Amino acid sequence: MKRWISFTGCALLALIFCGGCSMYWYRSPEKFTVKNSRLNWVHIYYQAEEDAPRIRCEMTNNGQITILEGHSVTVGDDFNIEYHKKDFGDVRKYYYSMQPSMFDATLQLLVDSGLMTIEKPDEDAPLYPKVMIKANINHVKQDKFTFNEALISEIRTLLFQYKMSGTLSH
Predict the structure, then answer these.
(1) In the predicted model, what is the mean pLDDT of the chain?
(2) Residue ranges per domain, the chain?
(3) Which of 4, 8, 21, 155 is the most buried (most CB within 10 A)?
(4) Sheet harboring 140-145: ordered strands across?
(5) Does the pLDDT of residue 170 top 50, yes or no?
């Protein structure tokens, strides 16, 4: 009886130990099929060069796309209080809408281009273009700066589509 209790206790401790470490060895898949969910969203912050305007694109599955563009620090940070800077008020906001199926296709294209890939910058990585991504797709979260040229190219193409609609500059 004592052996059974000690064996059960050891097995339980091993299970707890392995369960606690599982978050360190389990990784979410980098490429997957995007499922339609009202909880999917992507925020992209893009700046081509140091003196170029900042662009923030927020996309949600209800079809709402919000784009902020300008030199103001509030393009990247709504709560920034550096109001004494001369370009604080330089921000423009545009609204678009798309069908949820189109939104899913756009997310799938970004996922296939490496949106969910974990990246480690090397010392030679250029500072610009500066691309930061925050996303929640199929309950998989991502928060990173990207240096992946294929992904940056897709993001530029996505932003260029809105630029060609006649509202974004530069």
Answers:
(1) 80
(2) 41-164
(3) 155
(4) 92-97, 64-70, 54-60, 41-47, 130-137, 140-145
(5) no
Condensed to tens digits (0 to 9), the pLDDT of residues 119-156 reads 887 788 888 898 999 999 998 999 999 988 889 988 88
Q: Which residues contact 90 (CB under 8 A, 6 or more apart)?
A: 53, 70, 71, 72
- 140, β-bridge pairs: 137
Spatial separation of the C-alpha atoms in residues 17 and 20, rounded to whole Å? 5
What pTM was estimated for this model as a whole? 0.74
Structural element, H or E, at residue 70: strand 64-70
**3-state DSSP helix/strand/coil % of the chain, to nearest 5:** 35, 25, 45
Task: Please give the span between the terminal C-alpha atoms of the chain, in angstroms, as a whole number.
Answer: 77
Which of 7-21, 36-50, 53-67, 83-97 shows the lowest mean pLDDT across its residues? 7-21
Topology of domain 41-164 in CATH is Mago nashi protein (3.30.1560)
- Altogether, the residues listed in the chain come to a count of 170
Alpha-carbon separation of residue 154 from 12, 39, 84 (angstroms): 48, 22, 35
Is the separation of the CB atoms in 133 and 146 below 8 Å?
A: yes
| All residues at 6 or more sequence positions from 70 whose CB lies less than 8 Å from its CB, including other chains | 53, 54, 87, 90, 91, 92
